[in-house]
Structure prediction request, 640 residues.
Amino acid sequence: MFQRKPIFYGGKRVRETSGIGGSRNAMVKLGGISNDLIFPPMGGIIKNPFKGSAKFFCGDLMEYRTTEDGTSNAEVYILKTFKVQSATGTTVNIYRDGFLHIPFVGDILMKAPETITGTGAGYAVTAVEKTVVGTIPVWKLTLATTLGTLKDGDVLVEAAASGASVKMLVQNINACAPTDGEFVGTDASGVGIGAGSDFDSSVYTYAPALGGLFYTQKMSPIPPCVEALNPCKIKGWFRVDYCNMKDPVAQSTQTGS
Amino acid sequence: MPKFENSQYAKLWSAEGRQVMSEILSTPDMVKLRNTFYQTRFKPDTMPTVRQSDGSIVFEAKMREIKSGSLMDLRAPLAESIQGEAGDVAVYRGSIPDLSAKSTTETAHERMYKQDLFEQFGDAQLLANFAQEVLQAKLDSATQTLSNMAAQLMSKGEIEYTGGSGLKMKVIKAEIPTWNFQKAGVKIWSDPTAPLIDILVKKVEEAKMQFGIDVPFVLDVTKAQFDKYFLTNNQVKDRIKFVYSSNGNNLPDTFTPTQEMALTTLALQTGMPKILIVEEAQRDGDTIVHGWKADNVVLRPEGWAGKIMYADPLEIKAYSPNFTPDTIVRNFTKVMGGLATFMNTTKANGNFKEWHTDLLMAAVPTLDEFLYHIIIDTTTADA
Prediction:
């Protein structure tokens, strides 16, 4: 999608509020020379970009998925997480603020399973509404089928497919985002090449950082099964260690496409 | 005895390395540009395209569509004329992809060995080896990549990048109108009885009427296609015999014409487009590939097919000394008229230093005559 300037010979009222400058750093500041901002060769095509105007943030966990030769046509997956505020049946309210991932119609979500390779019910979001519950801003999601009982603080993640017993889309956490990134595309995202690819939709290429040390409180919500992969022995810190972050079971079951 | 640290070779990776790199790159005995098919059809854009902050590098290719007039309307006096249509400006936009050649890394142990060599053979030998083994191979990668993309774009109207070991994706598609994708004519071109000259003359006439232009046309064919279609074609051979016998040279009944005989004869035929032979081939790992689609030939107005759009690699900005630690030293040298950039890096690896050389490029060919660019499938006859 290209930013064409639309032409309209009428009036348009606009109001926006924002702040400029300031910073909110998710990285743990340590002295000495660190070696985290290292990028893999070639990078990859982001296979699960946001379907509309949304951001990923510094400290977001990612998967850099390669094929057998370690580099060609690699893929990048963003671990998108959504924290439940409340839920009833097929209606789920997700916390909403400027530092959280935004859900879109078409996203297939599931409650993060107990273990990283565990399964759960995953179904598509059919409607998203910006609203409040009391004074708490939320995204009110309508799902195709109920995900089961959800309570305040549960974390939803993207599922690999839709169904009653499906796995997480992003299991092999081995990379992270060193900075925020903004998506503004509203068109369908291309897959690069092969079935489903074309010339017109957007294709996002990205080189994630292979190392990082972040404050968990400043990161996007982390489900317990992902926290279990954290090699850092200091409470409140999450370490992405380059080429080291790997659950051996997840590695063997995940395949590059 | 001059010291290795003061040698030209060692300077290549220093902050002043750009000067030494530029000298090597502009010496034809040290490095050459080969596989330059892209230069025969496309010329670089006058300025680099600006990289946007959202990650896109968007170029725009524009052409004015000429709506040529048609027959007048018979009317009664004082009656108003009917409103006509004006042609618009056809535009297609695309993104410039980022590419890199295979990198070269020199470890400290290799460097120690070179220091010993320097004491035996001197600076010139080290530079010559560097130019030949490191720089030349990367330049060949870049020129082959551009030639492959240029051949794809011309012969298919689109570029799908599957070469190399990196990402594979559909890159750009030119807005060539459907009418321009044509079939072979009354017979397929591999049929020796196909009236090739008549077919081409007719296609040129129809193109001029359709587009409302009267400019000379050219036909781009690969050498293999020319040999296969034209040198075995009966109509072409008959014309060659006629031209030769009218000059007093009688050719035998069965003969195989040379490329030169065919080209000179065909140039004499009224209405034939000028024939340009396409020679391109690239190496992809261990295999030889061709960007040009084997079944297709291209009929287009004479002149440049288009431009190479290019941008500076993001590394030049992101890795400027303002943002990088003093322990990593980089220099950048533009090459190929600014289309690509060499990056030499010195960094630490544990107890030792390490030296890298990379060639980075963000460039893509684009068509300037896409409304008049005709792609002919020589293997399918008209229905």
The longest strand of chain B covers residues 352-367. The mean pLDDT of chain B is 91. The interface with chain A takes residues 54-56, 58, 93, 98, 103, 158, 160, 162, 164-170, 172-173, 325, 327 of chain B (CB under 8 Å). Chain B has ten helices and 18 strands.
